[in-house]
Amino acid sequence: MSQKKPDLKLNNSSGCPRSVSPKGRIFFRNLNENKAREICQQGNFQKIISDLNNYGLFDIEIYRVKSLYKDEFSQIHFLNRVDLELLTILELFDRRTFVHSLNTFFAIKKKIDRPLEDGSTFSKKLIEEKINPTKFLRATLFHDIGKITIPKFLLNSHFTDEHWAQAFIQLSPEERRNILKKHSVHLPAQIENEPEEIIKYFLINRIRGAKFVPIKTLFSEEQIKKLCKRNISPNDSLIEIVKSHEEYSEIILAISGYPEEAYLAGNHHNYKFDKNTAKNISSKMNSTIAPDLIHLADIQNALESNRPYHPREPKIKILAFMMDDAKKGTIDICTTCLWIKDELKKINSKKIKRILNHDEIDPNFYFLKERKKELLSIYNFFKENNWEIKDLIPPDLVFMLVFSILKIYTFQV
Fold first, then answer.
1. Which of 141, 187, 196, 325 has its CA 20 to 30 A from that of 30?
2. Which are the contacts of 184, defined by CB distance < 8 A and separation ≥ 6?
3. Do residues 100 and 302 lie in contact, with contact meaning Cβ atoms separated by under 8 Å?
């Protein structure tokens, strides 16, 4: 006669029998977490949800994430069960992306209530556009949820802008010409056959090879095989692949019952360059500044953080990247100018003065020289768009800057 199995009651926080010792509970907890993390690497949102439930891991992992981040979560007033599921999946997929999402949320929550030059706030502007504040903040929190569909080794690769520039010069002259033409990247004719000058030109002008150099140039054969299994072409660039996360953010939020949040998160980088594609969303969403605000907060937080592929970037360089996006039409110029001016006003005037008026004996001459180029580019951007800049410049340097801005492009290679 077979012996009856004991009825083991499970501990909710660890998913193991209550009778198990503390060491055993830790073992079970780690085992469950590792299995849940493995499930969340599949790249298929609905299968992730299904598998976490089928393995009885979802509630356990939600409990763990809520406990770990209870202070942060207590400051997010709208969190419900669906939100907790999405946050848990994001944390299980990649902690770095999860923390970035939280930081971007808190940065924009603080930013939208700061008084702007025109006497308003971004929060008031959103309300005037009839954008629900809670839906906007939720869209910000989950702007990167679509990254769960991208292999983590791509997101966290250690290749820097310099690595991609070096990979570019390893391509044949014909491949280089075709890539430059396809992506409308200008390269001065006199340096076309000068590898070191090309690298220097890319870095100085913030031209990111990751946007157009094929991933097959830097990733291993094994990694390329994994990508091919997911129907990702080795001829695509890293950023072309990562761009897909925006579309998947939109899909995942729509599936989760958040149509307006889906549209806002799905357009925060404006990769599609077509704001008329949203279905069943009122026309007010096509002209809102909300996706641009998410975009600006996203890139600011990303570039202010240390990443595997780049160190923390200087504030002025980050603002120059924002300016580049506005010039390309990716984000609204007016919104960008308001954001950049607000950020510049946070920088100590002595620091601005040192950047603008340094000389060659300064121990940080080369660093300051690059920041000066970027700052003058920003000032010139304001000038071209009829924005006042006197309030951003130390009074004794205003006259000098009139001439510096006129000569801005003499700094370019």
1. 141
2. none
3. yes
Q: Please answer whether residues 188 and 201 qualify as being in contact, where contact means their C-beta atoms are separated by less than 8 angstroms.
A: yes
C-beta neighbour count of 249 within 10 angstroms:
27
Give the pLDDT band (50/70/90) at residue 357: confident
Exposed, middle or buried, 371 (CB in 10 Å: 0-12/13-18/19+)?
buried
Cα-flanking dihedrals φ and ψ of residue 318, to 5°?
Answer: -60, -45
> Is residue 264 classed exposed, middle or buried when 0-12, 13-18 and 19+ CB atoms within 10 A define those classes?
buried
Q: Which amino acid is at 313?
A: E
Q: Which two tokens stand for residue 385?
A: 């768009």
Distance between CA atoms of 390 and 385, rounded to whole angstroms? Answer: 14
How many CB atoms neighbour CB 353 within 10 A?
14
- Compute how many other C-beta atoms are within 10 angstroms of the C-beta atom of residue 228: 11
Would you tell me how many other CB atoms lie within 10 Å of the CB of residue 149?
20
Cβ 261 vs Cβ 138: under 8 Å: yes
The DSSP line for 159-197 is --HHHHHHHHHHS-HHHHHHHHHHTT----GGGTT-HHH
Is the pLDDT at 202 greater than 50? The verdict is yes
Alpha helices, DSSP H only, in 2-80?
22-39, 45-54, 58-68, 70-73
Q: How many helices (H) and strands (E) does the chain have?
A: 21, 2
Which of 87-101, 239-253, 260-274, 347-361 bottoms out in mean pLDDT, i.e. has the lowest?
260-274
Residue 353: per-residue pLDDT: 86
Q: Which two tokens stand for residue 214?
A: 């094929």
Which residue would you say has higher pLDDT here, 82 or 396? 82
- Residue-wise pLDDT for 158-185, tens only, equals 899 999 999 999 999 999 999 999 998 9
pLDDT score recorded for residue 350: 86
Segment holding 17, helix H or strand E: strand 16-17
Q: pLDDT value at position 19?
A: 60
**pLDDT of res. 403:** 55
Q: Which residues contact 248 (CB under 8 A, 6 or more apart)?
A: 45, 145, 146, 147, 148, 149
Cα 126 → chain centroid: 22
Q: Which two tokens stand for residue 192?
A: 């076309």
For residue 10, the surrounding DSSP H or E stretch is: strand 10-11
Tell me, what's the pLDDT at 244? 86
Q: 282: helix, coil or strand?
A: coil
Contact between 149 and 45 (Cβ < 8 Å): yes
